[in-house]
Write a structure and sequence with these properties.
Blueprint lengths: L1 E13 L12 E13 L11 H12 L5 E2 L13 H18 L3 E10 L2 E5 L4
Helix pairs in contact: 1-2
The chain binds zinc ion.
Length: 124
Amino acid sequence: MYEVTIIKSFSAAHLLAEIGGKCEELHGHNFKVEVTVAAKELNPNGLLIDFRFLKKVLDEILENIDHKYLNTLTSFTGMNPSAENIAKYICEKMDLKVKMAGVNMVRVKIWESENAAVTYIPKQ
Ligand SMILES: [Zn+2]
């Protein structure tokens, strides 16, 4: 089994309703996103997947949420746009595209600050 991880970042604003404390107020983060994919076999070129392809797929998804007020996006209607839900959103959006390239999503980790991260792991 091989894994490949890429890291990107984006900035966005959100508020988290009904959790108490400061996070109920509108605020922003510079989020760091770590995406890991895996496959059992390498392609004939000795690669799991082309980094450039993986980065392009992630970039296209981040384009929808970068510099946005996440609570107003239809993707997060009816839920708090928490780091957990953002991680799940990114994972589900990437899933089909990476599967077509022959690899599986392993995890999406979102760093909300230097000291706090959440991880979404899809069902296999
Ligand atoms: Zn926050």
